Amino acid sequence: VTHRLISSAFAVTTGRRAEQAGQLDWEALARIPTLVVLMGWKSLPAIAERLIAHGADPAAPAAVISCGTTPEQRVALGTLSTIAEATRQAGLVPPATLVVGEVARLAARLAWFRPAG
After folding, report:
1. For 51-72, how does the pLDDT look when each residue is reduced to its tens digit (9 = 90+)?
2. How far apart are CA 54 and CA 51, in angstroms?
3. CA-only gyration radius of the chain, Å
4. Alpha helices of 7-64 — where are they, by DSSP H?
């Protein structure tokens, strides 16, 4: 989630109530250098749209990690504006975690977790 040369701060939130506009401070979340959203599978398109509407860069790197740390782990990469579609096209399933920020660019290079098989 962080890298000492990239992320100076990060925040973690849940996406469970992302459709309810008043539940989160979207303007503040849009300014966080690295944002991690747990339990946001169902709301992924709405989360991306709200962040962009509140000032997040649509071209910000993004990754969705499905079934993290299990043999079924898979990752979809894109930008904040494309991550929902990239996740759908990759056929990822919940549970999934969204990571938005420059650190997401490191996913392929670091690839710390390789499922057995």
Report:
1. 999 999 999 999 999 998 888 8
2. 5
3. 13
4. 26-31, 44-53
Q: What residue type is 34 in one-letter code?
A: T
E strand or H helix that includes residue 64: strand 61-66
16 to 31, 33, 52, 70: CA distances (angstroms): 20, 21, 18, 22
pTM: 0.89
Calculated CA dihedral for residues 39, 82, 79, 22, nearest 10 degrees = -50
How many CA atoms within 13 Å lie on the side-chain side of 56?
29
> Which residues are CB-neighbours of 108 under 8 A, at least 6 positions away?
77
